[in-house]
Amino acid sequence: MHKRWDQSLNTLAINVPYISFLGIDFDRRGDELTAILPFQDKLIGNPFLPAIHGGVTAAFLEVTAVMTLSRQYLWEKLENGELDLDRLEKGEVPRLPKTIDFTVDFLRSGLPRDAYARARISRAGRRYASVHVEAWQDDHTRFFAQATGHFLMPQKRV
């Protein structure tokens, strides 16, 4: 069961070009999904500090929120056979949640090291979802950024 989900999550991530470009990976432990942004020199926005670019940080948080929502949204489709792993692996990516708004709080500079993020779904309906995301580096109780976003959930095509 979890193996199928891990496979579908990895395939979904590979088929979203920006996730691949940034090198974001995902680790699932039980029902908890952690996004991992491995440090790369190309992520530096201010070489004098050095610090991770704010746009990279915001994108990392937004990707974490979308993938967390997608996990919830797609799980049922995967379980009832509506989502076929073979088709997913061929690049037939299902529609993902669309961002309505996304507000980022930069709490401190992202240092030149790996970053981690987790999202918590505050509200999830058929049409709309609200998500809070927190990112950290060395200490998971010391966030360097957090965000709140609202998303339009994919609707079945008629």
From TrEMBL:
Single GO molecular function: thiolester hydrolase activity
Pfam families: 4HBT
TM regions (residue ranges): none
Thioesterase domain: residues covered: 52-141
Name assigned to this protein: Thioesterase
